Amino acid sequence: MIPAAFEYHAPKNLEEAFRLLDRHGDEAKLLAGGHSLLPMMKLRLAAPRFVIDLGRLKGLDYIREEQGHMVIGAMVKHAEIEHSSLLRAKCPLLPEAAAAIGDVQVRNRGTIGGSLAHADPAADYPAAILGLDAVMELQSNSGSRTVSAEDFFVDMLTTQLRPGEILTQIRVPVIGKGSGTAYCKLPQLASGYAVVGVAARVTLANGKLAQVTIGVTGVGPKAYRAENVENALRGKKASDKSVAEAARHAAHGIDALADLHASADYRREMAGVFTRRALALAIARAAGKKA
Amino acid sequence: MATATKFIGKPLKRKEDPRLIQGIAHYVDDLVLAGMLHAGFVRSPHAHAVVKSIDSTKAQSAPGVVGVFTAEDFRGQIGIVPCAAQLPDLKGAPRPVLATGRVRFVGEAVAVVVASDRYALRDAMDLVEVDYEPLTPVVDPEKAISKNAPVLHEPSADNVSFRWELEGGDVKRAFKQADKVIRQRILNQRLVPMAMEPRGVLAEYKRGEKTLTVWSSTQIPHLLKTQLAAMLGTPEHSVRVITPEVGGGFGSKLNVYPEEAIVAHLAMRLGHPVKWMESRRENFVCTIHGRDQIADVEAAVSKDGTLLGTKWRIIADLGAYYQLLTPLVPTLTGLMLAGSYKVPAIKIEIIGALTNKMATDAYRGAGRPEATYYVERLMDLIAAELKMDPAEIRRKNFPLPKEFPYTTPTGVAYDSANYQRSLDIALKKSGYAKLRKEQAALRKQGRYLGIGVSTYVEICAMGPSSAMPAGGWESATVRVEPTGKVTILTGASPHGQGQETSFAQMGAEVLGLTPDDVNVVHGDTGAVPYGIGTFGSRGTAVGGTAAYMSLVKLRDKLAKIVGHLTGEDPKNFVFGGGSISSKSSANKSISLGEAIGAAYTAKTLPQGMEPGLEATTFFEPTNFTFPFGAHVCVVEIDAETGGVRLLKYVAVDDCGNVLNPLLVEGQVHGGIVQSVGQAMFEEAVYDEHGQLITGELMDYAIPRADAMPWMETHRTVTPSPVNPLGVKGVGEAGTIGATPAIINAVVDALAPFGVRHVDMPVKRERIWKLMRRKAAPKRAPRAAAKAKPKKKSKSAARRRTSRRAR
Ligand SMILES: Cc1cc2nc3c(=O)[nH]c(=O)nc-3n(C[C@H](O)[C@H](O)[C@H](O)COP(=O)(O)OP(=O)(O)OC[C@H]3O[C@@H](n4cnc5c(N)ncnc54)[C@H](O)[C@@H]3O)c2cc1C
């Protein structure tokens, strides 16, 4: 379990990181928490010649509120999100999703930026990010741009990130009164990753679902919005029956993954089950019921 | 004993824990010697292939590399991997330490690289170029023993390693008399033992002294020493094996592995200490696996539930080569197929199949968990078929306490037991009757509770030498040091069982000291007398007995000395509080120190008595012991996902007398969790190419703390008559009793869906499929079904029986 030799760099600021990225091109890899990159390097599935560690760089590890949004630096660790009282109050979906990731050791090292940039099809955050309709900020030497969560994930392990770019922060809405969120997950028994993970956000107005967003991870090659379900429910009464009916279509049109741990059929079916569970919980929370 | 118990039977905390918890204990990987080199093995990525050539020129010249060695380099210098199993007509499947010309499983080593540090080593290993010509692998054991399958070991004609047959009682008549015959195929999947510490070896050869010292993470230091001497052609008296801390074994380190011999050989050859540490991935593919059997059973029963006879055909997947006990383990299954029941007639055929996989061997329970699982599943199948309560059918077939020693038709004599009592307690403590009512009520709400019962007997304290390939005795030397401290040197080699504590309790008890006065030394062939090792739940029953007998010898010697000094009858002394006191008169008492002084200064000893205070015992048991118990497990199944949740676990175990109840509970807890592993999580899956696709912990699931409910453990105490301590052994009981209790609970939960058997592990999707095969039931729960048996479900059941389970 020893990686191939590499040169290690620890830039002190973003500018220096950009310079290193530009200089070494695709021979370089950014290192955040290392909990996806290092296992691959140790197995020699990845052998970057240059490793650029973002861990020594100050200024990417904040959680703050800005104009009705929460902004989170890319280097914030899973455990920090899980335990952030600010996020628990303002956007509890993220701490709930963070708490579902791996184990304590993983959560103490892994970062939200690393998880999103890595875009593992079974990772937890992507569902939450989609469910929250988040916006990612990508920076490079030539400036910065924002990308919506929906556009960010391109395919298995592939995102909108271009060479030379760093994901710097994530912007999510504050969850107000009348709104509720929930993350429900069926973990793979060995790794703890999601076989299916569903994040739901709803806003209730007069007993009707004024707004519904649903992010699903684990089922397809990339996390996705369950638009079928959202459309079926938007503006409808939030009844158990309508939710159950709509949730069944959570994997509609998705080319579901199949592996040792779950067949495509099972994943599709569980997408429905966990979409229903997440919606029911989010609705109960929006209605002010403890759950 | 002349003293009241002060320490034996008390829940003392483990003496070994502080150093383990603080991380200041030493495992093989913690040992660093000057000039130490590192070895790494280049392993086959193919399950079956011809090794056409190995080009190591690039690796040889890589920085830091000391040498690259292949089978050619070891020819005539290292013998084959030993197998101690003796079975009639056992076919050869000899394992060379490095593949010679052909590889037969993924992970078989073809070359070894030695380098000055681990980094250089890892880089160099990629530079060894091996040219393979793939052959068709044989993965399925049933196909392996069928005609036209590629043969693993020429000049054999087939892949049948052995056929083991046993018949007791009149089986033909039993089946003729039967009201019902119940058939089922039951699988026992392959498991990875998964010790927390992988294997590791460090060897050092001192040229001047001509001594070879091998530190290995093993359960059998002495047997390893003997085998290494034989494999390397080195005089045994110059070989010393030391086991530092061993981070778990579970049978996987009850073996002699190629790496141990090669590392030792290289240390001698290169004149430098050499170390090899196994990686977790290697541990998956080249440390022995456990279980892996297919059993077809037929049971003849009368309509009142009395067992008349059973017929078994079991195919055991042995893998590609024999390790130490590979072919022997399935025969232990055979011996235990009567379970805790009076079965008048049994016929057994066991076939060992050679396949292109890692060898199977002894894994916690070694053959007995398989037997118990089959028998306990069978009892539930019979109960379901006859619409009887699973507890009732068991009670009906138990031998009575007065019938012990009870000899089964497989020829095994169970020492002592009261099966009725442990079942009664388990039912009572679990609230069985109430649980059944709750189950019926919940089923009406579409919730599926399952209650599983298992009543087991196991064979342990291995065992009389007549039944063991390499001797079944154990040794212990006890020394009372001149300062009054006591050293117990045990030939057993505990590696987590806690004998440093329980033997110290024994020493303190017998000599009237405290456990802190007693130090237990083990796992160093240079320090302790020859011993057999720790496995088969023998450490305390056999090893502990040897220690106890040595302690008693010294106590008697001390009493004689004091008797001589004071004129008191030696029988009248009581040992305690650091003195040896006369029961009759206070002035005939002296301090223990004074008595010890007399033994060592040797000026006032009785005529003819040898000086010193050291005694050795080689204890040979007259029989195995047969712990038993009853387990009840409650599960609930999530009808939407198929997920199984354990709600309750009640275990009533009888391991005879208990030296330390904390240690016993720890063993039971661990055993149950390991059963949960087999029942619900673990499976070594080889694909059709012979690749282990669950070859890492990201894919091979093991239970974690959050999978476990509170485990309620109870005990009955039926002392064993076969050793003076009356102990039976408890290292494997949990693993043996729990697996069927869990699966019986799962099947019980699924009864409304017409399910009568599920194979392990009961992963969610498997259950989910079964529940969908027949949509939510409208059928009445078990209690009601009893009153009104339905004809239809019976034929459905029969159809399912004939269906192949895999
Ligand atoms: C045992 C184990 C269990 C796990 N279980 C789960 C689980 O249940 N759920 C789950 O979601 N995850 C799980 N993970 C993954 C874990 O959450 C990782 O930490 C995460 O996926 C990657 O984050 P990281 O900070 O460790 O990134 P790294 O491993 O350091 O980097 C991952 C990739 O992202 C790139 N990268 C990192 N940061 C940036 C950035 N700011 N901008 C651009 N590119 C960047 C890196 O170059 C690399 O390619 C598990 C991991 C382990 C080891």
Keywords:
heterodimer; A: 291 residues; alpha+beta; Uridine Diphospho-n-acetylenolpyruvylglucosamine Reductase, domain 3; Enolase-like, domain 1; four-stranded antiparallel β-sheet; globular; B: 806 residues; Aldehyde Oxidoreductase, domain 3; Aldehyde Oxidoreductase, domain 4; seven-stranded mixed β-sheet; binds flavin-adenine dinucleotide
Structural commentary:
The complex is a heterodimer of chains A (291) and B (806). By secondary structure, chain A is of the alpha+beta class. Chain A folds into 3 domains: 7-56, 2-Layer Sandwich (Uridine Diphospho-n-acetylenolpyruvylglucosamine Reductase, domain 2), CATH 3.30.43.10; 63-173, Uridine Diphospho-n-acetylenolpyruvylglucosamine Reductase, domain 3, CATH 3.30.465; 179-286, 2-Layer Sandwich (Enolase-like, domain 1), CATH 3.30.390.50. Helices cover 34% and strands 27% of the residues of chain A. Chain A has helices at residues 14-24, 37-42, 78-83, 85-90, 93-99, 104-109, 112-118, 125-131, 149-152, 227-233, 240-247, 264-286, and strands at 7-9, 28-31, 50-53, 63-66, 69-73, 135-140, 143-148, 153-155, 158-159, 166-173, 179-187, 194-205, 208-217, 224-225. In chain A, the strands form 4 sheets. A 5-stranded antiparallel sheet of chain A has the order 4-5-10-6-7. Chain A has a 4-stranded antiparallel sheet with strand order 11-12-13-14. In chain A, a hairpin with a 2-residue loop joins strand 12 and strand 13. In chain A, helix 5 packs antiparallel against helix 8 (125-131) and helix 10 (227-233) packs antiparallel against helix 11. Chain A is globular, with a radius of gyration of 19 Å. Chain A starts with 6 loop residues before the first strand and ends in a 5-residue tail after the last helix. The model of chain A has no long low-confidence stretch (mean pLDDT 96). Chain B is of the alpha+beta class and 806 residues long. Chain B has 3 domains: 31-135 and 196-248 and 253-286, Aldehyde Oxidoreductase, domain 3, CATH 3.90.1170.50; 389-460 and 624-803, Aldehyde Oxidoreductase, domain 4, CATH 3.30.365; 463-619, Aldehyde Oxidoreductase, domain 4, CATH 3.30.365. In chain B, the strands form 7 sheets. Chain B has a 7-stranded mixed sheet with strand order 3-5-1-12-9-10-11, sandwiched between helices. Chain B has a 5-stranded mixed sheet with strand order 7-15-14-13-8. Chain B has a 4-stranded mixed sheet with strand order 18-26-27-28, sandwiched between helices. In chain B, helix 11 (368-386) crosses helix 12, helix 15 (499-511) packs parallel to helix 16 (539-566) and helix 18 (661-681) crosses helix 19. The longest helix of chain B is centred in the C-terminal third of the chain and has 28 residues, at 539-566. Chain B is globular. In chain B, 56% of the residues are buried. At the A-B interface, helix 12 of A face helix 4 and helix 20 of B. The structure holds flavin-adenine dinucleotide. The site of flavin-adenine dinucleotide has 32 residues of chain A, from strand 2, helix 2, helix 7 and strand 10.
